[in-house]
Write a structure and sequence with these properties.
CATH superfamily: Response regulator
Number of helices: 4
Radius of gyration: 12 Å
Shape: flat
Largest sheet: 3 strands, parallel
Distance between the termini: 28 Å
Number of strands: 3
Length: 83
């Protein structure tokens, strides 16, 4: 699905344990490296795993909605690397 649609942004909600999200992120980045990936995680461990797997941004759930909107805007219009 990713290569056919070339999404600018993929948002993933980590709702399950295991390596499935890491595998999925690696596949997305392999097939469409320009797609930005935002991952919503349950805890710091999942956050780090998402970053290690190629997420551009990984946030622990519970952050303010305004921050989410700012990050999405930065991901789709901003620089290639997020600090």
């Amino acid at each position: 699905m990713i290569p056919e649609h070339s999404p600018a942004l993929v948002v993933v909600d980590v709702a399950w344990p295991g390596d499935g999200v890491s595998t999925m992120l690696r596949q997305i980045k392999d097939k469409e490296p320009r797609s930005r990936c935002l991952v919503l995680t349950e805890d710091r461990q999942q956050q780090q795993e998402a970053i290690d797997a190629g997420a551009d941004v990984a946030l622990i759930k519970g952050f303010p909605a305004a921050r989410l909107f700012d990050i999405i805007e930065m991901l789709v219009t901003g620089p290639e690397e997020i600090g």
